[in-house]
């Protein structure tokens, strides 16, 4: 069965007709041409597909597109206009990636973490909250440092 | 046809920083925005999707393959089998023993049998279920030791089940010692588990050839094998690198290369293939599991007298890199230690387990785990400190290896061990989240014991045993927009390690030019060799340097012609004489001229091993690293928390210190994974855990704080004195963690990964 929905992706309304079984990830990548979120496992195990839906981080491979009808979907490509988001800048500053495949998901997740936290973030808490995003290159020390820097700037 | 959308991309060419600096990655901005196009992101107008039917059986005959129903399924454009392979239905890195598509038998679960192209990936996968394969299921060969010796087992290939046997004999093989320790060690099958799945887009060309855009580690070896299987001359199969989502060895063998090209050429339209996670576990080779019998003899003072070892490596269904694993495994079998007498034998075998091949630390991970376990056992038997025993026996410059090769470059092994030993130790844990079990709150510290362990390794860098190992670079210097600009073009694969950054740094330093543009890596320039064996900064770095030097020579000739002055240096956009005087402004001197040079870099010659004694100068360089691990173990639940993992490594010269640190962090994480969690579990040839739910890799929570000490003792034989970086930390981390867990628990723990049931005895 098809459904007509509208996703507001990175600030632009995107009407699209999708099979109701389509995930947000497939709608973005295959229907709307936004390949910023990555498909690492398609089962919610790796976090590479993380996007923000109405400001909350979501595994886009586990959310049906029809459930996001009318919602604001933000990918790493749309986090900032032109310039980089402070979290993106921090990932570059601290070498928080190598191959970069997990990075758009890590960054959306980190933006979500900063949104969730209401105060100081300890290293342990950063790690706890970022533990759903795998990085096989093992750039974890850089990721922790990047999230700490961005948290400091937010304060 | 045109190039696909979203590839290639233009990397940043306006970054500063030469050799020894840590400039921003030129692909950094694209990567943090998700706009760096990986192979799985590629798209082409009019493309269809390919999918692969794989064998459910580890060992079976094929009586027939029926494709009619699949072909009739709406949306399906093609169904191909072995009968459709245009060239020879065989490929392989070392032996051409691997069918593109299975003919009359399958040798492992997941072996490709047929291909489908359809309008949508789901339609293609549905159609796979309609292909009727009549299998005759056979008993699989699954034990590596029996495969090596039991002549009654079925022969999986023409020449039997032994891919390579290598013996190494040094000194007196019957030497006797005061103190003897022995053990049998096993290592499970580790997976590269790169996050970006195997993917590629094949676009048929008007000349009857094909353009393939893909993620790989080595464009030219893919090109050669693919062309051979397609029955095309190599120049008609052109490969272009797209974004690579990690590799770690797993992309060195072919996956979808021939398959996607076959479908594209058959249909005359672009075909994209992209594996899903489960298929990826079957779509690439893994790390060889091993069983190793070791005996160490030492004097009562702790000097090593001899090492005897028998080692078995399970190569699975096809040869892949098994010959190299046996070569590395035996030649590195005694570790970075002075051992006067040795008798080593290694076997690499065929079985019906998943095919094993390249993975970071190739052939060194297995013996390092074994000999470092032995060193701790020996230290206990001698009543010596384990770090002291290692320092006492450490090899150094001038040492002779087990193959009789004299180490003619720095080998600061003792210093590496001292450095990690002397780093401050972490305090006892007081944080609720810091115990094993973490936020699951499984303990308040009761039943938790702490241990400290060491791991030290030696890894050969670059290709060995007589291979002519080289890379190629083309450098073009010209003035663009008033600014001197260099274009660097190689076929080397950026897989995340930061080779693009390093190439820019070298060109900046050698040419004194700020703006360095990188040409997309493709097969229109000479071979760069593989992004493996920790070799690219050494080999491709050397080639970029050579090409830059050749370009500089022509600039000097131009300066001599114009000004009659001998220039010797390019710096800050100026042409400079030996006395430091500026001869000319580079942009003004060049004017409209374009200077382009292509050069290769070959490393020093190496030699094959003697087939009987295993003696020979097989390796060009070694890398060394030492780890010290501190662990907390919950002995009641069998949970391990690595509290601290410190590393010292000699890198010769850190071209990019931040990237070196990244390699050490990442390698250590993968070594930790092998120590406590990572294993493809195989029962009777069948993989039990092909998902990230069941195959665990370290998360950010598993990654301990690391202190890293980087030594720079230049290798006089290597460009800039560099020493390969990527592999050693992967190797020494595993035994450091295992030894720490042993120290904490007193258990023997002869197998990695160490699992909770090994610790609780349940």
UniProtKB/TrEMBL annotation, chain A:
2Fe-2S ferredoxin-type domain location, by residue? 3-79
Entries under InterPro entries matching the protein = 2Fe-2S-bd, 2Fe-2S-bd_dom_sf, 2Fe-2S_ferredoxin-like_sf, 2Fe-2S_ferredoxin-type, 2Fe2S_fd_BS, Aldehyde_Oxdr_Iron-Sulfur, Beta-grasp_dom_sf
The molecular function GO annotations come to: 2 iron, 2 sulfur cluster binding; metal ion binding; oxidoreductase activity, acting on the aldehyde or oxo group of donors
Claim: Iron is one of the keywords in the record: yes
Domain of life, per the record?
Answer: Bacteria
**Pfam assignment, any one:** Fer2_2
* Pathway field: Alkaloid degradation; nicotine degradation
Question: What are the record keywords, sorted?
Answer: 2Fe-2S, Iron, Iron-sulfur, Metal-binding, Oxidoreductase
Keyword Repressor attached:
no
Q: Which CDD domains match?
A: fer2 (cd00207)
What is this protein's record name? Xanthine dehydrogenase YagT iron-sulfur-binding subunit
- Output the lineage of the source organism: Bacteria, Bacillati, Actinomycetota, Actinomycetes, Pseudonocardiales
TrEMBL record, chain B:
Which organism is this protein's natural source? Answer: Labedaea rhizosphaerae
Domain (Aldehyde oxidase/xanthine dehydrogenase a/b hammerhead) ranges: 33-139
Region described as Disordered: spans on this chain: 1-26
Name recorded for this polypeptide: Xanthine dehydrogenase molybdenum binding subunit apoprotein
Q: Per its UniProt record, what PANTHER family does this chain match?
A: XANTHINE DEHYDROGENASE, XANTHINE DEHYDROGENASE SUBUNIT D-RELATED
Q: Which Gene3D superfamilies match?
A: Aldehyde oxidase/xanthine dehydrogenase, a/b hammerhead (3.90.1170.50), Aldehyde oxidase/xanthine dehydrogenase, molybdopterin binding domain (3.30.365.10)
Q: What is the lineage of its organism?
A: Bacteria, Bacillati, Actinomycetota, Actinomycetes, Pseudonocardiales
Q: Which SUPFAM superfamilies match?
A: CO dehydrogenase molybdoprotein N-domain-like, Molybdenum cofactor-binding domain
Q: Which GO terms describe its molecular function?
A: iron ion binding; oxidoreductase activity
Q: Which NCBIfam families match?
A: pucD
């Amino acid at each position: 069965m098809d459904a007509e929905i509208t996703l507001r992706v990175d600030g632009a309304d995107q009407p699209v007709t999708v099979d109701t079984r389509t995930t947000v990830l497939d709608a973005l990548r295959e229907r709307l041409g936004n390949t910023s979120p990555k498909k690492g496992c398609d089962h919610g195990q790796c976090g590479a597909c993380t996007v923000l839906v109405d400001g909350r981080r979501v595994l886009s491979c586990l959310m049906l597109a029809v459930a996001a009808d009318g919602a604001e979907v933000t990918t790493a490509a749309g986090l900032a206009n032109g310039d980089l988001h402070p979290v993106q800048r921090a990932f570059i500053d601290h070498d928080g990636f190598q191959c970069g495949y997990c990075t758009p998901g890590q960054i959306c997740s980190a933006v979500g973490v900063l949104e969730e936290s209401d105060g100081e973030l300890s290293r342990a808490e950063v790690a706890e909250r970022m533990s759903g995003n795998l990085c096989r290159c093992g750039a974890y020390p850089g990721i922790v440092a990047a999230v700490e820097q961005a948290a400091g700037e937010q304060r | 046809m045109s190039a696909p959308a979203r590839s290639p991309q233009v990397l940043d060419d306006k970054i500063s920083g030469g050799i020894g600096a840590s400039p921003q990655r030129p692909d950094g901005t694209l990567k943090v925005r998700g706009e760096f196009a990986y192979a799985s992101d590629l798209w082409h107008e009019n493309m269809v999707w390919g999918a692969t039917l794989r064998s459910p059986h580890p060992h079976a005959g094929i009586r027939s393959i029926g494709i009619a129903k699949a072909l009739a399924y709406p949306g399906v454009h093609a169904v191909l089998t072995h009968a459709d392979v245009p060239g020879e239905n065989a490929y392989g890195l070392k032996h051409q023993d691997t069918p593109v598509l299975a003919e009359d038998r399958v040798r492992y679960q997941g072996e490709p049998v047929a291909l489908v192209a359809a309008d949508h990936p789901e339609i293609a996968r549905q159609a796979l279920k309609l292909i009727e394969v009549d299998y005759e299921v056979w008993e699989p060969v699954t034990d590596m030791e029996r495969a090596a010796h039991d002549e009654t087992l079925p022969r999986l290939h023409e020449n039997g089940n032994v891919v390579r046997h290598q013996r190494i004999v040094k000194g007196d093989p019957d030497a006797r010692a005061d103190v003897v320790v022995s053990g049998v060690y096993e290592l499970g099958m580790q997976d590269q588990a790169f996050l970006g799945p195997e993917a590629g887009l094949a676009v048929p060309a008007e000349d009857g050839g094909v353009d393939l855009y893909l993620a790989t580690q080595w464009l030219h070896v893919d090109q050669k094998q693919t062309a051979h299987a397609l029955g095309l001359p190599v120049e008609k199969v052109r490969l272009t690198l797209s974004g690579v989502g990690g590799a770690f060895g797993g992309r060195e063998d072919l996956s979808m290369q021939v398959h996607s090209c076959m479908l594209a050429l058959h249909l005359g339209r672009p075909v994209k293939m992209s594996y899903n996670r489960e298929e990826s576990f079957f779509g690439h080779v893994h790390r060889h599991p091993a069983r190793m019998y070791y005996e160490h003899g030492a004097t009562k003072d702790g000097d090593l007298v001899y090492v005897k070892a028998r080692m078995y490596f399970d190569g699975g269904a096809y040869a892949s890199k098994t010959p190299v694993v046996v070569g590395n495994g035996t030649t590195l079998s005694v570790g970075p230690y002075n051992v006067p007498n040795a008798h080593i034998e290694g076997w690499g075998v065929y079985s019906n387990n998943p095919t094993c091949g390249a993975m970071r630390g190739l052939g060194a991970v297995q013996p390092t785990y074994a000999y470092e376990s032995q060193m701790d056992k020996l230290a206990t038997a001698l009543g010596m400190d384990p770090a002291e025993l290692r320092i006492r026996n450490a090899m150094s410059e001038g040492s002779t290896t087990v193959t009789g090769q004299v180490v003619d470059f720095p080998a600061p092994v003792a210093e590496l061990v001292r450095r990690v030993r002397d780093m401050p130790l972490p305090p006892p844990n007081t944080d609720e989240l810091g115990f094993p079990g973490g936020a699951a709150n499984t303990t308040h510290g009761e039943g938790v014991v702490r241990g400290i362990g060491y791991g030290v390794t030696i890894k050969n860098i670059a290709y060995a045993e007589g291979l002519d190992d080289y890379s190629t670079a083309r450098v073009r210097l010209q003035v663009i927009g008033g600014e001197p600009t260099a274009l660097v073009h190689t076929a080397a694969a950026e897989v995340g390690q930061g080779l693009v950054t390093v190439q820019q740094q070298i060109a900046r330093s050698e040419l004194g030019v700020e703006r360095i543009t990188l040409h997309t890596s493709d097969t229109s320039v000479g071979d760069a060799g593989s992004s493996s064996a920790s070799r690219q900064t050494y080999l491709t770095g050397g080639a970029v340097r050579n090409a830059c030097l050749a370009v500089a020579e022509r600039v000097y000739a131009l300066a001599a012609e114009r000004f009659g002055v001998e220039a010797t240096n390019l710096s800050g956009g100026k042409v400079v004489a030996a006395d430091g005087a500026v001869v000319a402004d580079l942009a003004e001197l060049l004017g409209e001229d374009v200077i382009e040079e292509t050069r290769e870099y070959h490393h020093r010659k190496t030699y094959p091993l003697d087939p009987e004694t295993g003696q020979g100068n097989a390796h060009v360089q070694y890398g060394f690293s030492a780890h010290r691990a501190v662990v907390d173990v919950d002995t009641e639940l069998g949970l391990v928390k690595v509290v601290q993992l410190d590393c010292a490594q000699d890198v010769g010269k850190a071209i990019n210190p931040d990237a070196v640190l990244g390699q050490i962090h990442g390698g250590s994480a993968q070594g930790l994974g092998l120590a406590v969690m990572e294993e493809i579990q195989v029962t009777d040839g069948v993989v039990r855990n092909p998902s990230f739910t069941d195959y665990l890799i370290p998360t950010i929570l598993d990654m301990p704080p690391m202190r890293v000490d980087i030594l720079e003792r230049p290798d006089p034989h290597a460009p800039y004195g560099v020493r390969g970086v990527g592999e050693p930390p992967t190797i020494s981390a595993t035994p450091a963690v295992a030894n720490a867990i042993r120290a904490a628990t007193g258990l023997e723990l002869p197998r990695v990964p160490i699992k909770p049931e090994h610790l609780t005895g349940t």
